Every structure is written in C-alpha cells, then in structure tokens.
Amino acid sequence: MRRNAVRLLLAMLVALAACLVAPGSPAQAAVPASPAVTYTNPIAEKRADPHIFKHTDGYYYFTATVPEYDRIVLRRATTIQGLSTAQEVTIWTKHASGVMGAHIWAPEIHFIDGKWYVYFAAGATNDVWAIRMYVLEGTGANPLTATWTEKGQIKTQWESFSLDATTFVVNGVRYLAWAQRDPSVSNNTDIYLAKMANPWTITGTPVMLSRPTYSWETVGYKVNEGPAVIQRGGKVFMSYSASATDSNYCLGLLSASASADLLNAANWSKSSTPVFTSNAATGQYGPGHNSFTVSEDGKSDILVYHDRNYKDITGDPLNDPNRRTRVQKLYWKADGTPDFGIPVPDGVTPQRFSSYNFADRFIRHWDYRARIEANVSPLADSQFRVVPGLTGSGTVSLESTNFPGHYLRHKNFEVWLEKNDGTAQYASDATFFRRAGLADSAGISYESYNYPGRYLRHYEYLLYVQTPSTTTDRADATFYAQ
Predict the structure, then answer these.
(1) N or C: which end of the chain has fewer CB within 10 A?
(2) 164-185 burial, b if ≥16 CB within 10 A, otherwise e?
(3) What's the pLDDT tens digit per position in 106-164?
(4) Is the pLDDT reported for residue 5 higher than 70?
(5) Is the pLDDT of residue 28 over 90?
(6) Is the separation of the CB atoms in 92 and 70 below 8 Å?
(7) Which CDD domains does the protein's record reference (predicted)?
C-alpha cells in the first residue's frame, strides 16, 4: 500500500514537472501563424509601378508600367515567383491620337462584381502631360483573354493632373484613392479619397488625405502619389510614394480606424518620417509605388514595389527604364502597425527566426553580438538570408540583411555577426546543418558544421553553440522561421 502511494506521488511529481517551465521562461510557443516565405528578386526587370492581385481562381495577376509608356500588359501565374517567367500579354495599346495617346502609367487590376477592371493614367498625343485617370472593363474568366472595353475617364473635382487610382472596400463601402494636383496650390500632387458609385465613377465630395509638406516628401518634386491600401486589426493603412522618382523616392504611411468616417481627414494620421527608403548597404534605391498582396498559403502579407539597383541617374528619371518589380514579406509590429523594414538585397529574400520558448523574441544582432530580443528595431537586425553554406553543399549559412557579407559565426562558442574574411576557419564557423527542431519538428535547429552535436541556442538571451542535453537545452536550440 505504501509502495503504491509512493508510486502515485512520484507520478504526480513527474506530471507536475512536465507542466512547469523554468523560472522566468514562458510556455512553449505555438507554431507561427505566419511562417516564412522566400522569393528571389527581382521579379521582373523594367517593370515599374507594379500591381499584383491574387484572385480566387488561384492565380496571381501582375501588371506594371512598361518603359515605353505605350501599352498595358498582364501576366498570371499560380505563384508570385512564377510571374518572373510567365507569358506577358498586351491587353490594350495607347490611342494613335487624342486622349489616352501618351504616358500610359501605373495600371492596376481589380475584380469587382464579376468583372475585371484596370485603372491607369494616360496623357494625350497633343499634350503628354495632360495626365488623367481611365478605366478598362474586362469580361471573361481570364483577363489575359478577356474582352476589354473602355469605360472612359474618372471625373474628379478638377480637370487637372491626376493619376494612380486604386480601389478598396471597408465595411462594405467601396472607395477610390488617387493622386491629383490642386490647381490652387504649387504642389505636384496630393492624395484624395472618395466613395464610388460604380467601378468607374466617384460620388460625393472628395477629401484630401495628404499633402507633401515634410522635407522627405518634397525632394525634387512636391509629390504624394501611388496610394495602396492594406487592412489589419480594425485599421486601414494607406502607403503612398513621395518626392522625385530617383533615389529620393520613398514611402509614407497614413492610418485610420476602419470604424471611423474615412472621408473625414481628421480621422487619418500621417507618419512624420518615411517608412521605406533607399538603402546603400543593400544596393536598393528609390523604392516606391507599391501594392500589397498575400503569400501562396494566404498567411503572409507581401509588399510589392519597384526600385533601381543604382543611385545615380543621367537625365530625367522618367526616361531611365530600369525600375524593377520586387517583393518581400511585410511584418507587423506589436502595436498592430506595419513594419516595412528596408528594401532587401537582390536574390533570395530573408527570414526571421523566433524562439521556440520565447515566442516574442527573435534572433538579432546587437553590436554584432547575436541574441534573442522582442520588438526588434530596426527590423533588419533580425532578418537573415538562408544561403548555401560557405563550406559547400548540404549546409547553410545565415547572412545579415542589413550587413551583406556578414554572417552569424561562432567564436569561442559565442555567436557573433562578422564579415566574411575568406578564411577556411571563418567558413567553417559560419556554416550549419539545418535540422528539424530539437523540441518541435515543425521548427528548426542549426547544428554547427565543425562541432557536430553543438547547436545554435540561446542562454540568458545570448546565442552560443552548445551541446543540448536537457529538455530546456533543446527548447533553447529550437526556432521558427517567420
């Protein structure tokens, strides 16, 4: 009887121990709701003002400005990466004379009430700068083979320079946002918003949401243009592009509550600093005119934009054809606002790695020491490209996003971010085997290449390579890619 009581007590203690977590540690993290996605940039050369729309038929539809400014093109593919090699079809060509005869810019494709609509801007043959907004309507399941008709110009409060129309729905109400010049102001363009009576007609009085006033909005030209909308957590976020279309081009952000009156400008707040800018370290310049789409699994938001891979431009930037379409994952801060990060380097896009047992902490570098931390700022300190291992096939190395050429490597079993010095020792120290997570096979663990059995793990929030021998050790050596 006493023996059974002891067994029962031991069983209870084991069960209790299994439920307990080490002091100061949170419970096991759930598999992330938004797992990592990777793409290879650029998606398309010589394609500016990109718009990618994921339809319910399983296809992504892609359109963009072509450098000849003379036509509207479409591609489709079942994956975002597939758009790179998808057949491109011209669905409409500029008029030989009159309106819609020049400067065919910034097309967007939308599916509304069973039909396709393409919004675009165009000048006239007798005045290429008489830019106005126009709409095409397409009938047919596949817009690449649909029958397209011209629905005409979107009329606004003024007959003035206007472009970059986009449409979105909040709480069942469809809106149009666009950029337009106020004839009474010396700005180039402001951002406006109005309700829509149908896909080619606005109704009511438009409201101005943003005017270029900050220094970063007025370099070269006083410009707010290219609005794009994403919604999350009961908030409406509208990104827009500012300044000249050279390396000064950048993104700003407006935000409002989805339950507010969106036609009251006072209900919108504006970022005082740009949210996405050129980055010399990654070799990306003039990122802007973005759109948003979602990953193939529907779990990640994807930022779509154009930029150039060089800074200096000869002559008018509008005559430089080399803006490229690029994509990268859009992350979200703890306060529910989007974190655009930086335009990542060309090639494979980076990932973030959250701790298995500290769900809000990510691997990051800080003063070149690797650690895990919550609320990482800047975001790029916690982004790493998983590239082929420096020692050869079957291995991987983790390259910093904002310090290209710098990798996570161990030194005296501490993990640091250091520049590749080209030595065999460095290559070995910066190379790992990617394994199934030691605490959860849905996660990832990284085993040292030159010290088999030692894994990348955190201890008191700093990263080391150590041999995991306990349940806690294995948890500390497990991460989720996001």
Answers:
(1) N
(2) bbbbbebeeebbbbbbbbbeee
(3) 999 999 999 999 999 999 999 999 999 999 999 999 999 999 999 999 999 999 999 99
(4) no
(5) no
(6) no
(7) beta-trefoil_ABD_ABFB, GH43f_LbAraf43-like
Say which of 164, 190, 225, 246 is annotated catalytic.
225
pLDDT tens-digit readout, 54-102: 999 999 999 999 999 999 999 999 999 999 999 999 999 999 999 999 9
Q: Which CATH number fits domain 40-347: 2.115.10.20, 2.60.40.10, 3.40.50.300, 2.40.40.20?
A: 2.115.10.20
Alpha helices (H) along 70-125: none
466: which 2 tokens?
């150590």
Name the token pair of 414: 């501490």
Give the start-to-end residue ranges of the domains of the chain.
40-347, 350-481
What percent of the chain lies above the pLDDT cut of 70?
Answer: 94
Query: Choosing from 49, 301, 418, 440, which is the catalytic residue?
Result: 49
Secondary structure of residue 221 in the 3-state scheme: coil
Q: How far apart are alpha carbons 47 and 64 in whole angstroms?
A: 6
Active site residue 49: yes
